[in-house]
Amino acid sequence: MNPVELKKLLADLSTGKLSVDEGMERLATLPYEDLGVARIDHHRHLRQGTPETILGARKTAEQMITIVGAMVRRGSNVLITRLDADKAESLVAKFPKGCYDGEARTFTLVQTPVEVLGKGRILVVCAGTSDLPVAREATVTARMLGNEVEELVDVGVAGIHRLFDRLDILRSAAVVIVVAGMEGALPSVIGGLVASPVIAVPTSVGYGASFGGIAALLGMLNSCASGVTVVNIDNGFGAACAAARINRRNPS
Amino acid sequence: MNPVELKKLLADLSTGKLSVDEGMERLATLPYEDLGVARIDHHRHLRQGTPETILGARKTAEQMITIVGAMVRRGSNVLITRLDADKAESLVAKFPKGCYDGEARTFTLVQTPVEVLGKGRILVVCAGTSDLPVAREATVTARMLGNEVEELVDVGVAGIHRLFDRLDILRSAAVVIVVAGMEGALPSVIGGLVASPVIAVPTSVGYGASFGGIAALLGMLNSCASGVTVVNIDNGFGAACAAARINRRNPS
Amino acid sequence: MNPVELKKLLADLSTGKLSVDEGMERLATLPYEDLGVARIDHHRHLRQGTPETILGARKTAEQMITIVGAMVRRGSNVLITRLDADKAESLVAKFPKGCYDGEARTFTLVQTPVEVLGKGRILVVCAGTSDLPVAREATVTARMLGNEVEELVDVGVAGIHRLFDRLDILRSAAVVIVVAGMEGALPSVIGGLVASPVIAVPTSVGYGASFGGIAALLGMLNSCASGVTVVNIDNGFGAACAAARINRRNPS
Amino acid sequence: MNPVELKKLLADLSTGKLSVDEGMERLATLPYEDLGVARIDHHRHLRQGTPETILGARKTAEQMITIVGAMVRRGSNVLITRLDADKAESLVAKFPKGCYDGEARTFTLVQTPVEVLGKGRILVVCAGTSDLPVAREATVTARMLGNEVEELVDVGVAGIHRLFDRLDILRSAAVVIVVAGMEGALPSVIGGLVASPVIAVPTSVGYGASFGGIAALLGMLNSCASGVTVVNIDNGFGAACAAARINRRNPS
Amino acid sequence: MNPVELKKLLADLSTGKLSVDEGMERLATLPYEDLGVARIDHHRHLRQGTPETILGARKTAEQMITIVGAMVRRGSNVLITRLDADKAESLVAKFPKGCYDGEARTFTLVQTPVEVLGKGRILVVCAGTSDLPVAREATVTARMLGNEVEELVDVGVAGIHRLFDRLDILRSAAVVIVVAGMEGALPSVIGGLVASPVIAVPTSVGYGASFGGIAALLGMLNSCASGVTVVNIDNGFGAACAAARINRRNPS
Amino acid sequence: MNPVELKKLLADLSTGKLSVDEGMERLATLPYEDLGVARIDHHRHLRQGTPETILGARKTAEQMITIVGAMVRRGSNVLITRLDADKAESLVAKFPKGCYDGEARTFTLVQTPVEVLGKGRILVVCAGTSDLPVAREATVTARMLGNEVEELVDVGVAGIHRLFDRLDILRSAAVVIVVAGMEGALPSVIGGLVASPVIAVPTSVGYGASFGGIAALLGMLNSCASGVTVVNIDNGFGAACAAARINRRNPS
Amino acid sequence: MNPVELKKLLADLSTGKLSVDEGMERLATLPYEDLGVARIDHHRHLRQGTPETILGARKTAEQMITIVGAMVRRGSNVLITRLDADKAESLVAKFPKGCYDGEARTFTLVQTPVEVLGKGRILVVCAGTSDLPVAREATVTARMLGNEVEELVDVGVAGIHRLFDRLDILRSAAVVIVVAGMEGALPSVIGGLVASPVIAVPTSVGYGASFGGIAALLGMLNSCASGVTVVNIDNGFGAACAAARINRRNPS
Amino acid sequence: MNPVELKKLLADLSTGKLSVDEGMERLATLPYEDLGVARIDHHRHLRQGTPETILGARKTAEQMITIVGAMVRRGSNVLITRLDADKAESLVAKFPKGCYDGEARTFTLVQTPVEVLGKGRILVVCAGTSDLPVAREATVTARMLGNEVEELVDVGVAGIHRLFDRLDILRSAAVVIVVAGMEGALPSVIGGLVASPVIAVPTSVGYGASFGGIAALLGMLNSCASGVTVVNIDNGFGAACAAARINRRNPS
Questions:
Q1: Residue B29, SS3 per DSSP
Q2: Residue C41 — very low, low, confident or very high, per pLDDT cuts 50/70/90?
Q3: Touching check for A24 and chain C: CB below 8 Å?
Q4: What is the mean pLDDT of chain A?
Q5: Out of E196, E230, E241, closest to residue F230 by CB
Q6: Residue F207 touches chain G, beta carbons under 8 Å
């Protein structure tokens, strides 16, 4: 029931087409969403700024082709994350306008140009090539969410002076996403150098006592630079969503 | 070496008082901070918007009186967190302008009025009285950092409809800090209802398999509402710092 | 807005006292609870069968006296769990009709007689005196929720034949709550002997590699007797709530 | 020794065919089961309502064909869980009356129609397609155990309003099985909305700090909705067994 | 029903005092224990060689006085473990024949002399004074169980040559109990030097990454000397019980 | 230097062929093993009763053929554990006298008949087919170590009465090895029924919260039946070695 | 900006080509590295003594060929660790001067002879063939870093006397690297026998409760031999780097 | 048996006072230590450079007074670590030459002046006052072991530029001990700036997800600066022992 229908119901009441008891019954069982709450959901990608998104990890190429087909018909932009190269091939064959980024393992399909919604620039920082796939997933996601994004790769804690050459870039960003594996110390260092929000992404890069990213995760949660927040291990997508929420020009 | 000294050095060079080689040597050994980087540190509370802050947990009352005394002489505002009531008594006796909040376990001393630096309102949400100390720590901290703060207490996942009566308050906030123990599900629910940044704070409230907050922490890191970020267990202070970074009018 | 008010709103519409647009506006902002959803909450103890309950663990005697006072004025029955003996003394002094069970660590105050709502008998089983406090918490809670309860104490896995003498009691129960620490194997054995629902409660009894109840918890989650469900460590209260849900004569 | 034999023994005693000492000896070594305890086991699937069940995970197709063949000869109904598609093919080829459900990964073979033994309807709820295999395993199992089952898919915590449209379905179920991965918060929300028993099944869906379902498991064990019980990670089968125990018309 | 009663029942049958049907009924409901199984339990300390034992950790002095009193009346020998000195004082005051060992934290009361049941000597080895309480608990327990026991203290892995001076003592023992904290390596070394059974007891001695004995426990479970078995952390009592089982002259 | 050489050295001294100082020097640098300690090692399989054993898990077929060849030339009996079927094929082809047990995953080659060294019978118990490989590894190992071994399969905690039919077998064993996965409760039950030594072997059988055998391991370490000892997860080999140490007729 | 440019800047100032204010501005934004700090980085392998090193684990053969090519052009020596044999083949085909060690899984390419920089000999000790790959990685790395290295294989804790035959080798080493899996006790034993620095490397060798090397790691961190330090699980490379730092003749 | 006695034995042999067989017997049972191995032990503090050391944590003042008394009589220097202030009072009262450091919680008693044995200076670095007790324990221990020690306090990762002002001190140290809690990132940064050995000490400083130092420990084990080694949590003593081994002028 949309507002038009609701208005008609009330009009019917006021004109006697509907009795008070009939109106009671219909309103009592009225699903919430008809009151404007749930419609938000049908337009979730508008409300939260996210394109329609698929987690590609456990789906077959066939399943994804079906889902993307439906999205394309709705006119949505599409973002698939954690997509293997072989499945990507089938998708690109089917949707030649789509684009696969082998580093980020993302598939993007833009039907309506992505409008820049962000106030400033999101900076994605990581220490090296091992962390790059997670960093790139953040980059692709943040761009799809309407943000200007820059990447700063190859600045690490054990070669700390390299960071100082990039102070300008670091300090001019509206939000900084720091991707790091191993001991996960980079967000602490950067958090001490900039005043803007810092989102830390632990990666599962490492071996032995890195425990698949737990070491980095704990390091980031215990950061001595106050005001650093953390997302799940390898969650470049989530970090970009959080950064986009922060960077949104008109959030509500 | 401060800018004045640097200017003098260059002037001496330009006037020949100093040879080029002498200038080389002095500059080569020039400590960084003299170039304007480290001065930032002396004014850290300006750079990052934090007042001078003390973690009260492991310090004696005597140690804190000494530290606060020095801060007062510098003209700083002071925030002590995790302060036991008995130690607070000594501090308030010594610094009667200071104020102890027994719920938040914070001591605050304001010498210069706190200017509102935030763009919007920070909302601190928690499910009940058990989580209140952590929520209140966030509130006090965020206010000391120059933000307008509102609290929303007693909205829980098991009585989900109460949240819906507060949608206006939730959706009008610039940043939402959600404090929750036990299963830590509240940030997911709220993250699905608002478009603004959501910072989740797990608390150590619970028993048995809550493992001192680990259950809540993991719940939040795995939030199905994308864009939720997380801080350390019981870290109301850190959440407020992150919220202040986000809410800052002119971050850089 | 309650149904009476809603009816009046619709009547006003049908008689023209309220215009269609005015009706639209009031209904659009109508809080859910006025539609009958939230009222459930005001009567939560009726909907879920629970009395008004307080977790006594972190509250002061003063705080609890205030809360219980309010409950008493509402005419509610009261159940406090995890209540230390010294706090209990203050409560009983203030509310002499209340009753403290030192083993269960519960305080109960019955203003209106508890009606038996359960279909059958709930049986609470444990291996020995160490597990008794948790078992007794379950017993007290289940009784307050309107169930007939029986206890079977001192049947353990290492003296398995004792169980066989009690097969009649075990098999005639409507629900069996099994409380066990250490290796937590008792629910598996009982689950293989009865056809009724079995709820397992791990306790923190043990030392070393019992890890505060984790060993028992894992044992129960991995029970080889299919159909055993588990609650949190030491959560006698929760087990009783679950048993009461199962045993309810007219659940909806 | 069955009752007939026992009767004969006693008759022999009463007629002097057997001396008292001979009787003593035979009875002293009498295996329990002859006294009616163990016979229960031969009819375990009747006692507990379960069909003969095989965990398919570690068995070869050949092993399972042998086992199913024996069950078929006994006239039993058969349920195999965790069965890979390739092994299923061999089984269906051999037993064409059997049926493989690729989503649930179950093989079922019904020789005698499953009688409805349950009092009410079991509702299986999950948040999305990732949790569907576990939910479907619960559905198939519960049906094989003689229950009417309904599924409610795609209701999640981050889109909480969708739950409200299904309140009728939720509240009319006799038992609700809630299957959820990631933060595992759905059972808490549903546990707060219904009065019937809620069984929570954590799934291993997720990555990073979901730790193969531990995050969901802990979330459920710490549910703020009292009366929620939990089974092992991915244990749709066990949840259905527990639900069937609860829903049984004549449990004993 | 004891054998005498059973014999009478059969005699009554053979003489016609009891009909066959009456005999059937009485035997069908006959509790197991009357068939000689449960009597074992009444004499458990004879069957397993253990004296009546109390875990003193969570009991009050009053509770223990009651229990010991009952044991004394039964003529049993008594062993209490994990007994604090202050509670011990009350016990010894009440039972002056009893004896408290402050190092082992055990109370023993011998009413009938302990007969030596073991074939050989049990050797209890530990590295130093920190592990001594656990070692001594093993010693006292093993002696109460009828074994000759010798202690070898102050042989550690970091001073490995000291072990070699004791090869005779090590190799002449029937069973070796090795108590060790920290890295728990001593059982591996000893297991490589002797051919007799080695029981390893991890202790909670250590700090930091010893995690309350987990490091030692894992070390022992992974011992490179094959044939070493392990008991729970700090479980000197259990190690002695196992050693007594091994050392028993006529185990069955 | 062997005893013969030592004797010669001393004779040379006594006859003046060697000066005191020369004797001093040679003895000061005398390696231990020449004093009879290390020779033990050359005959380790005699000292500890173990055949020459290879852990097959990480070795190639080629590596094992080389090692077994050397052992064969020494006249040793051979036991390889954790051997994959494909590697076994190569070994059996090369050493046709050897024998591969596909269930136990062991390769055995007996050159000299295994003499029975054990006093009594070792009983290996497990709950079902999933635990069988570990149980069988124990069986094969114990037999190679000179023990009479019996297996008792398919007795589980959820069908506890089946155990009672086997009390004779259980109670007549000299040592009982109990192999169990899932909640690992079987050793507790058996430990309460027999007086002989019980060695518990947790297996990695299970899923979800069994955590690869941790649940069973913890259950066994916390056994309420005193005197149960534990070996590493899936360590059937180690359990057999421990049982052989216990069962040895003349251990030293 | 390099020293030449800096000198020119100062010269320009002294000659008036640049005003003082212009000089101020250029120097204030001067990146650190131009002041001689960052140049260190360009010569990192000189500063830290490491050759240019690649972690081969996650890189493709193509990626590594590109990187090695660049290194070769710079005239660097090259060390790749954790390199699979199949990728190694491509590398050796491309760079025939390079050398692959299949045990250590390292690729080394020496363009300029490695000068011996170490004061003494580094000894790498391990217990057996399973730990050999990690030990060998340490050996190869330490040699590439300019050290004389010796290996001592097959000395284990369960055959402790073998160590005593090697006391000379152990005590004459400048640094001892001890590689051990399972219970990780070897470093404690060796740490008690030598006075030189001991670096312990836990390996992931083992199964069950070895938890991929955690047992060994914890054992080493809790070593009772004071002065033993530890590196990450399987980190032979890191141990060698640490040993090289210690052994460096002129460290600064 | 000391060398003098051995010489006498050989002399007796050469003069015929002792027969060859008598000599055989005495030498065969000769304890090792008489051959010069164990004497090392009696002089352990000389061999390893450690004074006689007591871990004060679990000992009573009385126990320590006894032990220290014996050490004093032997003429040893004494070091007690982890000593509470109240116990220290008793010790200092008894041994007025001793000295208690309340920050380090150490008691030292120097009878013979500590000779400087180290080649260079050991630098102990920590981030702040919370880590100071552990740092100071390292300082005191290293000094007692004959090293020159310097402390560098208040250099943290979040204020990274402060480190750069201390590059000279950092780079001139022979060994650097870095003490850090929280995320434990400081050793990585310092390890990247210096070429000398770096020993990392995690501290239990922190809360929530620092898990009593586990976060810092994991961070250090995963350090991206190669060549950093780690000791146990809060183990300042062990770090100093390791540093002393490294810094020893003549290690063997």
A1: coil
A2: very low
A3: yes
A4: 83
A5: E230
A6: no
Contacts of D214 in chain B (CB under 8 A): 218
Q: Could you report the per-residue pLDDT of D142-169, keeping only the tens digit for each?
A: 999 999 999 998 787 777 777 777 888 9
Q: Which tokens in the block code for residue F130?
A: 């999933």
What's the whole-model pTM score?
Answer: 0.82
Which amino acid is present at E1? M
C71/C52 Cα distance (integer angstroms): 7
Interchain pair H57, E207: CB under 8 A: yes
**Contacts G–H by Cβ distance under 8 A:** 103
| Backbone torsion region of residue E76, taken as left when φ is above 0, otherwise alpha when ψ lies between -120 and 50, otherwise beta | beta
Chain A residues touching residue C2 (CB < 8 angstroms): none
Q: Encode D75-88: b = buried (16+ Cβ within 10 Å), e = exposed.
A: ebbbbbbbbeeebb
Chain C positions touching A4 (Cβ under 8 A) are none
Task: Note whether E183 contacts G215, CB cutoff 8 Å.
Answer: no
Set of chain H residues whose Cβ sits within 8 Å of the Cβ of F19: 14
Interface probe with G: pick from A166, A205, A207, most Cβ of G within 10 Å? A207
Q: Which amino acid, H7?
A: K
Chain B, nearest residue to D183 by Cα: B219
What percent of chain E stands above pLDDT 70? 84
> What does the pLDDT read at residue D102?
93
Q: When comparing pLDDT for E74 and E48, which is higher?
A: E74
Residue with tokens 């108590």: E179
Rounded CA separation E134/E203 (Å): 7
Terminal Cα distance for chain H, rounded = 24
Task: For chain A, positions 40-59, list CB contacts with chain B under 8 A.
Answer: 47-50, 53
Give residue B244's pLDDT: 94
Q: Measuring CA to CA, which residue among A218, B215, A234 is closest to residue D215? A: B215
- C-alpha to C-alpha distance for A214 and G89, rounded to whole angstroms: 34
Q: Where are the beta strands (DSSP E) in chain H?
A: 52-55, 78-81, 99-101, 106-109, 121-126, 148-153, 175-180, 198-202, 228-230
Please tell me which residue of chain E has the smallest CA distance to C208: E233
Quick check: H250 pLDDT over 80?
A: no
Q: Which pLDDT tens digit goes with each residue over G78-108?
A: 999 999 999 999 999 999 999 999 999 999 9
Measured in angstroms, the CA of G91 and the nearest CA of chain E are apart by 38
Within 8 A by CB and 6+ apart from H162, the residues are: B33, B38, B41, H154, H155, H156
The answer to whether the CB of E244 falls within 8 A of the CB of E49 is yes
* Mutation to test the D interface, candidates A30, A32, A66, most D Cβ within 10 Å: A32
Rounded Cα gap, residues C2 and C9, in angstroms: 11
F contact chains, 3+ CB pairs < 8 A: C, D, E, G, H
The ipTM, to two decimals, is: 0.81
Count of residues in chain H: 252
Decide if pLDDT at H30 tops 70.
no
Please report residues of C whose CB lies closer than 8 A to that of B159.
41, 44
Strand spans (E) along H86-174: 99-101, 106-109, 121-126, 148-153
Residues 6 or more apart whose CB falls under 8 angstroms from that of G27 comprise B6, B10, B27, B35, G9
Residue of F158, C99, E148 whose CA lies nearest to D40 = F158
- CB-CB under 8 Å, A7 with C24: yes
Q: Which of H64, H191, H63, H200 is nearest to H124 (CA)?
A: H200
Phi and psi at G248, nearest 5°, equal -60, 135
Å between E171 CA and nearest CA of chain H: 15
- CB-CB contact of A207 with A182 (8 Å): no
Average of pLDDT values for C73-88? 91
Low-confidence ranges of chain B (pLDDT < 50): 1-3, 28-49, 252
pLDDT tens by residue, D35-71: 333 233 334 444 444 578 888 887 889 888 998 998 8
Q: State the distance between the two ends of chain G, measured CA to CA, in whole angstroms.
A: 26
